[in-house]
């Protein structure tokens, strides 16, 4: 706590003369400045930026097409790393480096897609609970508790598998990436509870503060109060949750893929592990590379969240 | 009195949760279609007559709501039905495989707790020192290291490179280690327990450290020091008692997390536990096991969180019920 209060003092000068010269900085500006000084946060940002860069420039970086199995003829399947195949080839003679690179966009789409759903549902549900209060609040929070204690991962596994067998021999089968879409939606639907809880707490805290009362006095509408006054002030805490959640969603998808329930048509890290895990002893590089990619991505988002929470809630934690 | 009301309310809520979970599980499994037809869609060449006979055999010819209540009634007498793949009662399958899960998760938690208390306290006593920084960085890294990836690394190092520990199963298939079942079982437990313990240690250490940092700043610690009690005793007797409460209550959540991801962590080591049973059942659409195992996992999770909430109120005198 002591380190953050000293930081506070340097960012928030209470000297009247200084205040007169410099416009007071908003929470965003202050947060950004603190974030730039956070070692963990910056490291997280670098790692996340790296993953994003790989996802965006992947097609130009990857030495091979992700579906290219031509290596079967020359170095063969399970070939150790070489100049042509920097991370070796896997069980099916795919180039491991190319597949790992093409797995990055999949991971990011899963993380962002699932968390957009979770954040949207969570903010709406939590916002209603926090702002309305009373019986509405009680009912919604019990429902939230329910989603917090059910074994989410176990349920998702069953649903993914059952849905994939349900679409066999139906027109739905031809929808591209149906399975991946299902996984994203499920992670999102089962992941909103912590965000709803946080939103509710923030709305409860903010709705009785003076500036909200002031806004109400000058005749602001409920919508204005909710979206222009309360929500922006609740955002910093929510962003931390979302950053953590993106890492969690990517990890969930990787675990689903590792167990063999991933989308067979998508290139994903979890699935690479699933395909190559049984040849771990002969071709460890084919399992290590996607595993390391998952680790780096999850670490990046966790560190980013850590840095953000230090930056925006300087008085909490530490 | 208030405490009794709280506990009763908490238990009632846990019961409601279980009913909700049973509804979700039953109707999810059944909403997507008839289990027998789903299984048969993936195994062509079975006559319609056989399918009809199977439906009658498994009682699937009745309407879903009736079947839900029949299923619930049987659950209450701990009858989970018969597995389609193993052709054994699901209850005894869950008991045998569940014991294996218990066998690795409980030691993992105890080891993690012991390490976290010691390391977290040490780091908190030297706040902002190099030790503290190292502990914090290590724990942050460890928190992000997916348990199953750590398992893969452990297998690569200890099973394949040095060939000192087994990489799969709970017992050797050909001859026990030193001819002893106990030794062989323990030998197989080392890597799975290490993986789970590492995963828990990271989170618990961070929690322990931040609690200890806060507690060490409280007045009663200063008073204890001023009255000449040795520092070790102040930290490990006086401060620890207070600082460890949130850590203990966090165990409930951790148990839930470990059980929830058991399908993954047990698959890494082909460990014959509840999670692995669940994964194979899902692959083969063995729906009595899917429903039974997910109900048991959910029940344990809900029990863990409920007990945690109750224990929290019982242990911590600072919490007042309104």
From TrEMBL, chain B:
Keyword check for Transmembrane helix: yes
**GO cellular component annotations of the record:** plasma membrane
List localization entries: Cell membrane
All residue ranges annotated as the ABC transmembrane type-1 domain in the record:
98-308
Which topology term describes how it sits in the membrane? Multi-pass membrane protein
Keyword Plastid attached? no
Please give the name of this protein: ABC transmembrane type-1 domain-containing protein
Tell me which species this is from: Microvirga vignae
């Amino acid at each position: 706590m002591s380190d953050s209060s000293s930081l506070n003092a340097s960012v928030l000068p209470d000297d009247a003369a200084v205040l007169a010269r410099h416009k007071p900085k908003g929470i965003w500006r202050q947060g950004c400045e603190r974030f730039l000084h956070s070692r963990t946060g910056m490291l997280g940002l670098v790692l996340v930026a790296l993953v994003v860069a790989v996802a965006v420039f992947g097609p130009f970086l990857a030495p091979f097409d992700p579906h290219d199995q031509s290596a079967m003829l020359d170095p063969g399947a399970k070939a150790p790393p070489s100049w042509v195949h920097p991370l070796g080839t896997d069980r099916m003679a795919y180039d491991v480096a190319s597949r790992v690179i093409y797995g990055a966009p999949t991971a990011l789409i899963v993380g962002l897609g699932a968390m957009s759903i979770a954040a949207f549902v969570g903010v709406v549900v939590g916002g209603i609970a926090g702002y309305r209060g009373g019986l509405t609040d009680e009912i919604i929070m019990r429902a939230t508790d329910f989603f917090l204690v059910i074994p989410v991962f176990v349920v998702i596994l069953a649903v993914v598998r059952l849905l994939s067998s349900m679409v066999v021999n139906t027109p739905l089968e031809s929808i591209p990436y149906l399975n991946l879409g299902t996984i994203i939606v499920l992670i999102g639907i089962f992941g909103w509870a912590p965000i709803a809880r946080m939103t509710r707490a923030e709305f409860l805290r903010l709705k009785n503060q003076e500036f909200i009362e002031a806004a109400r006095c000058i005749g602001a509408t409920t919508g204005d109060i909710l979206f222009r006054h309360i929500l922006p002030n609740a955002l910093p805490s929510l962003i931390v949750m979302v950053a953590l959640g993106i890492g969690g969603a990517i990890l969930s998808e990787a675990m689903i893929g590792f167990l063999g329930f991933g989308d067979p048509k998508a290139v994903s890290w979890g699935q690479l592990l699933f395909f190559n895990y049984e040849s771990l002893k002969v071709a460890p590089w084919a399992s290590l590379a996607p595993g390391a990619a998952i680790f780096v991505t999850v670490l990046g988002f966790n560190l980013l969240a850590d840095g953000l929470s230090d930056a925006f809630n300087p008085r909490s934690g530490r | 009195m208030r405490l009794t009301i709280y506990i009763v309310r908490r238990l009632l809520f846990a019961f409601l949760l279980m009913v909700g979970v049973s509804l979700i599980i039953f109707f999810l499994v059944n909403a997507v279609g008839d289990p027998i037809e789903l299984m048969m869609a993936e195994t062509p060449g079975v006559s319609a007559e056989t399918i009809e006979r199977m439906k009658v055999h498994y009682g699937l010819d009745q309407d879903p709501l009736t079947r839900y209540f029949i299923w619930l009634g049987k659950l209450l007498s701990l009858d989970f039905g018969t597995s389609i793949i193993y052709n054994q009662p699901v209850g005894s399958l869950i008991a045998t495989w569940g014991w294996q899960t218990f066998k690795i998760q409980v030691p993992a938690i105890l080891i993690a707790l012991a390490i976290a208390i010691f390391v977290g306290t040490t780091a908190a006593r030297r706040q902002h020192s190099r030790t503290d920084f190292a502990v914090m960085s290590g724990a942050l890294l460890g928190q992000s290291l997916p348990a199953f990836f750590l398992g893969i690394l452990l297998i690569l190092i200890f099973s394949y490179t040095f060939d000192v520990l087994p990489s799969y199963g709970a017992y050797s298939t050909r001859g026990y280690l030193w001819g002893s079942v106990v030794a062989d079982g323990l030998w197989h437990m080392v890597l799975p327990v290490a993986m789970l313990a590492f995963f828990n240690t990271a989170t618990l250490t961070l929690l322990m450290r931040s609690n200890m940092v806060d507690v060490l700043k409280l007045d009663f610690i200063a008073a204890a020091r001023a009255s000449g009690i040795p520092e070790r005793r102040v930290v490990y007797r006086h401060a620890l008692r207070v600082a460890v409460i949130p850590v203990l209550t966090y165990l409930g959540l951790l148990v839930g997390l470990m059980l929830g991801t058991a399908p993954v962590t047990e698959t890494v080591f082909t460990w014959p536990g509840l999670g692995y049973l669940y994964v194979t059942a899902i692959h083969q659409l063995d729906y009595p096991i899917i429903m039974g195992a997910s109900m048991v996992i959910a029940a344990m999770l809900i029990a863990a969180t409920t007990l945690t909430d109750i224990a929290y109120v019982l242990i911590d005198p600072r919490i007042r019920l309104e």
